[in-house]
Amino acid sequence: MSTILAVFAHPDDELGCIGTLISHSQNGDNVHLLFLTKGENSSVLGGTDEERIIKRRKHTQQIEELAGVQVHFLDFPDSRIQVSVEGAYLLAEKIKEVRPNCIITWNQPLRPGAGHPDHRACSQLVFDAINYARYRSKSSKFKPFREPITLYQYYDPQVDYGAQIQYIDVTDYYDKIMRFVEIYQEAYGDWPVKTFKTTWLQTNGRECNVPYAEAFKIVVRGYGASKLLPLDIPPRSLPSEKENKTTNEVEQS
Fold first, then answer.
1. Do 159 and 110 meet the contact criterion of CB atoms below 8 Å apart?
2. Which of 12, 73, 117, 198 has the most beta carbons within 10 angstroms of its beta carbon?
3. d(CA 84, CA 80)
């Protein structure tokens, strides 16, 4: 049994990995979903900060039930996350507590929306926190966590040229992924998220010969080696020039 920790800035940021989280939960793994903020600065949800936090909590409670994950919140201010030693140590405490085998988080997208400053700050804080979690802290309630961690970030073909990619087959969970979108639709507003998500799932799926897949950039691979290469992937009949030049790892979960 493995422990997966997904770390994101706001509730609904887990759109890019929800199928993967469900897959691991269904496989019997412990899956934790940590949000740095409470999502109180949503520009779509109405009401006061407190009222928006209540709405966000209700959304994430439904996600817990749908995906079989444990949701946690830290108390960073929404839309004002800063990369700092103090913030990284705060996140390191959660890593020490959960003791994950694998962490999934934001990458460093360079376009509006996905490139929200909170998203990019979250990515950097996670990397720093993994390092700080390895060491003692006088104020810490937990022992240092020095086990190897595999770190995945969202994959963005616009900025991640030449990256090593991990594809996850989420075909069996497509209906749950669409239900996930419905839960958060109030926060997404007019954005056609079902169409967006389905298109990305299909695009990734074509790269690894499955109907629907999620894709991640491998930043750090936990130690260890398999005895065999994954040779059971059916060959593409007409491989593209890109595929001839790039070797991508495929995992069907």
1. yes
2. 12
3. 12
Q: Are 125 and 108 in contact (CB under 8 A)?
A: no
Tell me the domain boundaries of the chain: 3-251
Distance, CA of 126 to chain centre: 11
Are the beta carbons of 25 and 67 closer than 8 angstroms?
yes
- The reported pTM is 0.87
Residue 236 zone, left/alpha/beta (φ > 0; ψ -120 to 50; rest): beta
Q: Which of 74, 91, 186 is nearest to 132 (CA)?
A: 91
pLDDT in tens, 70-99: 999 999 999 999 999 999 999 999 999 999
Rounded to an integer, the average pLDDT of 97-120 is: 91
Coil, strand or helix at 159: coil
Instruction: Give me the pLDDT at residue 232, please.
Output: 62
Domain 3-251 bears CATH identifier 3.40.50.10320: yes
